[in-house]
């Protein structure tokens, strides 16, 4: 049972309590999908998904049978003929799907990172989507269970209860972790930045985690830091290109709500930057940033085997509030004592030291689409199963034309 528990939880993941939120109720989930060729998905007459072919953009975005198409290329699909919808789905574009939460779901706040999770009311444990802790609802722990079998007198052991199979034979120990500074992912130990490490934090308390993530990789690779003005300029040009291909539209239907086109790449106060903004920032500095697909890092020693790889950019997505998305990085630093592995998060004034195994497990534990590798431009991506340069940038051909007109070099 302990082996099964360790296999499910994984290295570095902790236990936590979860508490019912009295102010938040489960709502429908909006699933954004960006596709660069035909979106291979079967829809019925009411635009509900009836089949998701394996290996396509629909499966990568997590679409499931029963999800409903609600917006396509910034337009509400309610007023579009079915033939027009199918024609737009046959070429590059953006779509939003809505997934209705089950009526028996509730919203639970993780007691470790305070993140809200929508889970089944009957769940006796779940994995927090943010800190990846194994969380147990408080109401479940307070429920009255049958008395343990007679003769079960082992001190400080979890009783042999059918409803808590995952916790069989787990001992509780005094380990001092209650006073330790923990990263929300559950990995690493807090420490001062080692000699030679440059650590950038968010500026002025604003959500500039994207700038800090880029600079935490660039400056530690002996490249100049990028300024916040340049990041905002990049995102603004991307917003102009987006507006141009949308024929001057200033607002679109995205993520189930009306949004300004300029805010698709950066928030209105210069905060959370889009992945394309980060990619272009690295491109201008002489580095490539590309998505690491599932299965590329399954071998424990494969994390930093590629030449000229400077680290990984990690994206923590908050499904309850996209404005709370966050960027941080994982990298290796070499020294005379040997390599060390660091998690650098701009929310902290310290870094988190990882073992090589922890760094590997952290990257594997991230949700699909949340891990990006960064290397110098001379490095091929074959070693990590990466995409071509054309696929890495992930900008539609018509968008590239406008980017060129706006002053970007063609990727």
Automatic annotation (TrEMBL):
Keywords: Hydrolase, Protease, Ubl conjugation pathway. Its EC number is 3.4.19.12. Residues 47-93 form the PDZ domain. PROSITE patterns: PDZ. Pfam families: Josephin, PDZ. InterPro entries: Josephin (IPR006155), PDZ (IPR001478), PDZ_sf (IPR036034). One of its GO terms (molecular function) is cysteine-type deubiquitinase activity. The keyword Protein biosynthesis does not apply. It is an enzyme of class 3 (hydrolase). One of its GO terms (biological process) is protein deubiquitination. It catalyses: Thiol-dependent hydrolysis of ester, thioester, amide, peptide and isopeptide bonds formed by the C-terminal Gly of ubiquitin (a 76-residue protein attached to proteins as an intracellular targeting signal). This is ubiquitinyl hydrolase 1.
